[in-house]
Specification:
The protein is α+β, with helices and mostly antiparallel strands and 214 residues long. The protein folds into two domains: 133 residues, Glutaredoxin (3-Layer(aba) Sandwich); 43 residues, 2-Layer Sandwich (Antioxidant, Horf6, Chain A, domain 2), CATH 3.30.1020.10. Helix content is 32%, strand content 22%. It is built from seven helices and ten strands. The chain has a five-stranded mixed beta sheet. A three-stranded antiparallel beta sheet has the order 8-10-9, with no helix packed on it.
């Protein structure tokens, strides 16, 4: 029997549109995405330990995402009733409310659309996928984690800030960049640009690698 392959969108692709039932009611993705960044992320199952820590991590830092004009959407292959019960359970036990929509993807429609099912990991549970999607609906960054390793929330926020900084200032970001550090200026494309760069106040390792403060 031929193995089924679940194709994921690639960086630069338009994020696939969908309609889904969520803990905040019906959701049309393209409408939800309009005018803001979106982080769409999947978890393997409700009422599981690693997933609880991750969803709590997104919830407790939701103000940071909001300040970055970014909406959150969770997803797993569970029913809306299981989602609501889990949200209630975590709130009662920890005081943390999952204050973003969680997709009830029982038919696996969205999971398959975004390649969140990895057959060699599990046929019935999504891996820990993260899609960062910009306000134009373009996929800008993809992260995949296995079922048994939780995500790094600091890295998710760092990369979101990096993408937004790159867009705003037309720059690139070096290894381990965090806001406040120097950014990389695009390399010169002409001899004239190269000579102008040599007269600049950039921090230069060489003509092709120059940094500046924002």
């Amino acid at each position: 029997m031929e193995e089924q392959i679940y194709q994921m969108p690639r960086i630069g692709d338009t994020a696939p549109d969908f309609e889904a039932k969520t803990t905040h009611g019906p959701l049309n993705f393209s409408e939800y995405n309009k005018g803001s960044w979106v982080i769409l992320f999947s978890h393997p199952a409700d009422f599981t330990p690693v997933c609880t820590t991750e969803m709590s991590g997104f919830a407790t830092r939701s103000d940071e995402f909001k300040a970055l004009n970014t909406k959150l959407i969770g997803l797993s292959i569970d029913s809306i009733h299981a989602h609501v019960a889990w949200v209630n359970n975590v709130k009662k036990n920890s005081g943390v409310l999952f204050n973003f929509p969680i997709i009830a993807d029982i038919d696996m429609k969205v999971s398959k659309l975004y390649g969140m099912l990895q057959p060699n990991e599990s046929e019935t549970a999504t891996v820990r996928a993260v899609f960062i999607i910009d306000p134009t609906g373009k996929v800008r960054l993809i992260m995949y984690y296995p079922l048994n390793v939780g995500r790094n929330m600091d890295e998710i926020i760092r990369t979101l800030k990096a993408l937004q900084t790159s867009d705003k200032h037309a720059v690139a970001l070096p290894l381990n960049w965090v806001p406040g550090e120097k950014v990389i200026v695009p390399p010169p494309k002409t001899v004239d640009e190269m000579e102008e760069r040599e007269k600049s106040d950039y921090e230069m390792m060489d003509f092709y690698l120059a940094k500046k403060d924002l």
